[in-house]
Amino acid sequence: MTSQDAKRVFKNSRNNHGNAIAETGPMLYVLFFLLFFPLINLLSFSWGVATVHLIANNAARQAGSASSNTEAMNQMSNQAKSIVFSGIGQFANIKPVGGYRNLGVDLYIDRAEVDKVTDSSKNNTSNTVNDSQSNPDEGSFKFAVSQEEKNSTFSESHYGPNKSYPKSEGIDRKKYAYAFKVMAKYEVMPLFNFSSMPFGLSQVPMLGKAAIIEHCAISNVEHPEGLCN
Asked: What is the pTM of this model?
């Protein structure tokens, strides 16, 4: 190999190394774009889910202590409104879907015979233990509520949404147990919206469009005598 051939080989290898360095910057930028922003949206989604659960649980708790059905609905809506328009709700970027006063929450009244509630609680506890042992990887956390879960109750009778208990049914605390059920439904908006991007990202929840989250919370009625009011 002559000196000219050696110089030519060295020059080619230096050019290839320079090209690799020049391409590293754009490649890191693409990786950052593909990984960082979707990860931020995932964290935002988790915050939104937790906020929807907080709204439903707090609304049900406040409704349960109300002295009348009307007060229960007001307590529920006030709780939802206070969280949705608070810093927590604004950061979660959630949007109510229908509901009482368009706040994303609905109030139902459940009624069950006392004996059946006791028997059902025992059976559910037993089934939960068996299921967790046979399926240790399955969790109880759900992002949505199925139609069967919406219509199902701990009871034999179901009233609502956002209506008083019928006076014709009467209140019998010795025979029946009563509970308020709050159904919360919200859209969790993506923090970074990729709807204008190709590859069908506009149809992917939390990338190009909102994800709809539903959660159900139940609280015992402390003052059943006020359910008709």
From this structure: 0.69
